[in-house]
Amino acid sequence: MQKILVFLSFYILSSIHLQAQDQRFMGGVIVGLNASQIDGDNAAGYNKAGLMVGLRGGAYLTEKASLTVDMLYSQRGSRRVPKNDELFDPYTISTPYVEVPFLFHYKDWRVEYDDGSFFYKVSAEAGVAVSYLLQPKVENIVYETEVDNFNKIDLAWVLGVSYYFNENIGVAARYLRSVTPVYNHNKHMKTFNSLYGYNFNFSVFYVL
């Protein structure tokens, strides 16, 4: 996995470099926030906030279509804050990932300038994300004893939309849903639930 991450880092940095020479390539930076939860932990709501930051590389397929690969540090997990009349203790599951989304983008809503240049204001996005779990942490929940058995690799599908203010700057919203468990009770303790991650993220990006 480390070799794959090194290769993807090289690819993204190469895309940023090549963009200055060839308009078929793109590169940029992304900064945002996650709102996440974990299905199976007996808590509801996207209460776990986290940072998301990283780089983007990609290539334009047509005027409207492109493929991108992001390399992100993404803080995900789950957090329970009991109401006043509840007896349950608060708890937190923190799952920081190196997250690599592979996305297809399709743009629309063309805006033209007087000099003949143009850009597209909106983009629909879909793809998959492969993530590598760094150092999970569990506070005040039964999974404290099982944190070493959390899966290192997470596979998820991703849907999103972006809005561009100009050809370089925009904002994005994405929904990520894991198809592999954070914790698989069939491999470990069947008295616990399996855990699956869900995540909304909202970001600002700058691309060239």
Which CATH architecture is right? Beta Barrel
Number of β-strand runs: 9
Order of helices and strands: HEEEEEEEEE
Strand order of the largest sheet: 1-2-3-4-5-7-8-9
Radius of gyration: 19 Å
Query: Distance N terminus to C terminus?
Result: 28 Å
Q: Low-confidence parts lasting 5 or more residues at pLDDT below 50? A: none
CATH topology: Porin
Count of DSSP-assigned helices: 1
Helix/strand class: mainly beta
Overall number of domains: 1
Beta content? over 45%
Chain-averaged pLDDT: 89
Principal-axis shape: elongated
Give the fraction of residues assigned to helices. under 10%
Q: What is the CATH level 1 assignment?
A: Mainly Beta
Characterise the protein shown here:
This protein is mainly beta and 208 residues long. It contains one helix and nine strands, in the order αβββββββββ. The protein has one domain: Porin, CATH 2.40.160. Helix content is 9%, strand content 57%. The longest helix is centred in the N-terminal third of the chain and has 18 residues, at 2-19. The protein is elongated. The protein starts with a helix and ends with a strand.
Record the SSE blueprint.
Elements: H1 2-19, E1 25-39, E2 48-60, E3 65-80, E4 91-112, E5 118-133, E6 137-139, E7 153-164, E8 169-178, E9 196-207
Offer a quick outline of the entry.
The protein is mostly beta strands and 208 residues long. It is built from one helix and nine strands; from the N terminus they run H-E-E-E-E-E-E-E-E-E.
